[in-house]
Amino acid sequence: xxxxxxxxxxxxxxxxxxxxxxxxxxxxxxxxxxxxxxxxxxxxxxxxxxxxxxxxxxxxxxxxxxxxxxxxxxxxxxxxxxxxxxxxxxxxxxxxxxxxxxxxxxxxxxxxxxxxxxxxxxxxxxxxxxxxxxxxxxxxxxxxxxxxxxxxxxxxxxxxxxxxxxxxx
Length: 169
Fold this sequence. Notes:
The chain is mostly beta strands. It has one helix at 2-22, and strands at residues 28-29, 34-42, 46-49, 54-66, 71-74, 79-81, 85-88, 91-94, 99-100, 105-107, 127-129, 134-135, 140-141, 146-147, 152-153, 158-159.
């Protein structure tokens, strides 16, 4: 029995080292991070990943893109599935124990206005997912949204404003 527990311990350490190697561009990676598949971290901004985060990109790559001066903070025990995309020009925070299902997207900037000068860059608005949030398959969270603790966002939903916030006139 002792041999089996030693092998399990070494296997966990090997997976943790492999995860850290795949996230080498992050400024900080917590303990026991689990990474499978391709995770692309790029853009020159600051990315931190909390302890025990799980990134399963076996079905499709995960993209984490923080532009220079931007910050993406991924909390402890966060689970991210394949095809997910997190993009920041300013700041995106994903709280502890959040779950991002496959092909969901989080952006803090629209990158261009719908009308007028399409080359102008609008100002970024931070996005915050509080602890225990679940984003369903292909859900999209747009700039300036704060998703409250324990909220479940259904598959295919586009979140334009913070849930519970008064509607715009």
